[in-house]
Amino acid sequence: MSDVGLAYIDGAWCAPAGGAVFEVREPATGGLLGTVVDCGPAEASAAVDAAARALPGWRALPAHLRADRLRAVAAALTRRADEIAEMMTREQGKPLAEARAEVLSGADHMLWSAEETRRLYGETVPASTPSSRIWLLPEPVGVVAAITPWNFPLSMVTRKIGPALAAGCTVVLKPSELTPYSALAVAQACAEADLPAGVVNIVPTTRPAELTGVLMAAPEVRKVSFTGSTRVGRLLIAASAADVKRMSVELGGHAPVLVFADADLEKAAAGVARAKFYNAGQACTSPNRIFVHASVAGEFTRLLAARAAELPVGNGLAARTRIGPLINEAAVTKVATHVADAVDRGARVLTGGDRPDGDGYTGGTFHTPTVLAGVTDEMLVSTDETFGPVAPVLTFDSDDEALARANDTSYGLASYLWSRDLSRVIRSAEALRFGMVSVNGGTFAPPQGPFGGVKGSGYGREGGHHGVEHYLDYKYLAVELDG
């Protein structure tokens, strides 16, 4: 890619006055993908001003016309799915099939939001006297600041801007500096869909603290939606107190898996492998602690290791690849540190456990899919989010023990359980202190489902009608009639 990626502000492609840019490199090769403008406080302020100017017109647009614009964005993404997927694979690393699925998922989120636009009804509440009336009127919260991560660089964007636009809000979005091109592809789709100037603004930067400082200080910004680390989320929550901005935060995870003795082990191993190694384990919902009943742990671990060993590692552009590179060298170092700590404390590597070598891996940030047996609770893999292709297997002897150990974390995003006993499923799902529970392979990310966590994993939901409601205020209207 030779062109410089530009910011999208007030319906126009633009660059900072000083011409600052930053490089984006391909994790599979280390090669230069391209350069993108490096926005700062001035561009952030311009984007907020543009969003504030666009807000009255956008919120006043009839719902069916807002829905038409969102559908047009979805159509533009779908039309260019192959092109965008290739670019996403090059900048983020995930296999091409996963990247294309993400683009189409992003389009689905825009379509769902378009449908929700028509369903933002108010309420009539029974009044206390015959001469009074009570109505609740839904109104957009205002300008929204959205901050998205690198691991799902397009679908995270549409999951935020879709419901915001459906509610009648306007948006300023800061994407990760590691994957700005995917977010700018959404900006291109917004331009092709003829969204009014200022409704969506996207400002890439390598100075996130400076730029988000402007967004958090701007009184026009009334809502912040953030997906990222718990550390940064806490800082943003603290900053939001100054003028009481509304917050939605999806932070880290440390997802447990419970495989009970009565589980279908073949299906459980396949399902855990699918969830664990998707996007090379770089997902907040990725299984991080796999608790297996001691009576079936040997067979389950054998099945899981066999599946992991069959996953080809390589450049995501290659058709055979199932495990692409990690996002950067720091990510590989963290994975290697977790594996080494586990081995030093007595765990056994059943497959993987190292960086692949050979010409196809030169310059890239690869790590083999790894299964560890004999893992215990004090190891790093059991206490820290690995964010890589490592599946640590621990054992348990009773349901109560498994649930207590699964809940023994400050995080509360995703959890998984495998059992064919309905009573055990219900009791365990109710006992797990996580925002989401997958039973026997259920998935978390359809646009109609409210995605989000509890405890240190944040609050707020994205998806479904719950996601749109986070961008609405309900005005209480009390009317006293004459006579």
From TrEMBL:
Q: Which domain of life is it from?
A: Bacteria
The answer, when asked if RNA-binding is one of the entry's keywords, is no
Report what the protein is called. Answer: Aldehyde dehydrogenase family protein
Q: Does the keyword Repeat apply?
A: no
Q: Which Pfam families match?
A: Aldedh
Please name the CDD domains in this protein's record.
Answer: ALDH_F5_SSADH_GabD
Annotated Aldehyde dehydrogenase domain residues: 13-476
**Keywords attached to this entry:** Oxidoreductase
